[in-house]
Sequence to fold (606 residues):
Amino acid sequence: MTQEIRVTNYPEVLTDRPTHYCPGCHHGTAHRLVAEAITDLGLVDKSILIGSIGCSVFIYNYLSLDAIESPHGRAPAVATGVKRARPDKIVFTYQGDGDLASIGMAEIMHCANRGENITTIFVNNTVYGMTGGQMAPTTLVGQKTTTCPGGRCRENEGMPIRMTEIIASLGGVAYAERVAVNNVKNIMKAKKAVTKAFEYQTKELGFSFVEILATCPTNWHMTPLQANKRVETEMIPYFPLGNFKDVLAKEEK
Amino acid sequence: MSTPKRIFVKGNEAISRGALAAGMRCFFGYPITPQNDIPEFLSQALPEAGGEFVQAESEVAAANMLMGAAACGIRAMTSSSSPGMSLKQEAISYMAGSEIPGVIVNVSRGGPGLGDIGPSQGDYFQSVKGGGHGDYKLLVLAPGTVQEAYDLTIKAFDLAFKYRNPVLVLADAIIGQMKEPVVPWVPENRDPAEGQDWGLQGAVNRPPRLIKSLFLDDGALAGQNLKLQAKYQAMQAEVDQELFLTEDAELIVVAFGSIGRIAKSTVRKLRAQGKKVGLVRPITLFPFPSDVLLGLAKQGKRFLTIEHNMGQMVEDVRLAIRTVADSAFHAQLPGNLPTPDDFEEPILKALEG
Fold:
């Protein structure tokens, strides 16, 4: 005889529907962390979601919030416009690594530097997922993609960009942290970081940024388990986890 | 009744003041000549009026900030000049596709490429045919005087919200940099609930709102395009033009913006010499006054289109009158500042047929 035990519920913001994400993709986990943070902080009816281009373009199907879709890479600019028009609302972008670190590099840098009081959730899976696994600015050296079939080469394509470190160096940034969601321990840490990022926005401390290292089993040509392992063995060594800026922590010292 | 107080300002300042009078809350700018007076003026005046001014990191960002602000259902604007307008087209296409009512000002200059910083009408095609990707239209208003620059900027906001569509004010370096007397006015009886029924504001006691231009479901994009086309058809009601001495004219000069203004002086001078010439100055470039031109063509009149470019609006003039007449064309070359005398010979030549 089996008994069904419900160990968790859907946070208010998260819609109860199947996602379009591939098996083993971390977007679902990242969506849930955002949904929990917004729900836990009581921000459901004052949050505005700024979507971006890539696999997460459909995030508006999964988070039940007022939302706008922005052109590729422009979410921080659109978010700036929304926040300036509605300064009393909680405004956040959700962007991938192709979107944020390549075509949208100018927008994210200046939005952060101005200290726009918004939050950016940056999901880094080292490839352009939706278009079929092309090289991203975060693709690791040696990693094979459809546009670097021989593996990313330092001499030709340069080194992968570490966004959180760059963002943390800008004056307007209140909080910058890199997390992973490849195991329960990391997920718990990631939840704290995402919640903190939104909390800092409610305190009007400036720009808050959380980079989530994520899998893309389909374009990595891996099983979900292999992909999870790759986060640990290949990604984290190059993209170290941890806090890179916290204006409140500084004050405490 | 006392005479309304007049001010003596550049077209760029008139546009800025018109936007403030219209209740603009956010402005997003970027430096480019010859429109710099607009962000410079608004960087002080808009915060003083309780609004938000942002100097964006790029034309691309400024246009996307406009999209975000206007998506909240508030009055917002960006301005630029020709090369900058090319960069803004991405966001403008998204705004048209997502039905977001922003106002965009182009104080145009010579092109192609970096061109020059003098006046030109080389952005006509870009302005009225879409400009970015996909099937869309902007309402395009072309002022011929500094007062009209003030008036049409106010009108641009009203039309943007009436149709939930981006509206372009197409001026040029002459209008932007020329000083003229302006009688400022403030529109009354604005709808306090404007934009409240669709804008982003956080989903308080209602289902979430979604503003997007992606339509992947079978038939969805076709439906969206049909909806947009119906809107563009309804915009035909907004067509506006200045008619000057057209009734008994044998030759109709068609010219817009500053060139329309200059051509009017030429027409006036030739009338004094007994020449039967008249002028149609389109004030809305989209919708285009095709019916007015066709009506005049059916009366047997001849046409000469004069533009400060190599021939763009003339295609719409010819399209409008194609069943009964044709239009000659005179190109005022970009890079040269025109005078009324420059148009005398081409008008007389066209009048002789």
About this structure: The interface with chain A takes residues 25-26, 28, 52, 54, 56-58, 60-62, 64-72, 74, 76, 90-91, 94, 98, 200-205, 208-214 of chain B (CB under 8 Å). The CA atoms of residues 287 and 317 of chain B lie 12 Å apart. Chain B has two domains: 7-198+228-236, 242-352. DSSP finds twelve helices and 15 strands in chain B.
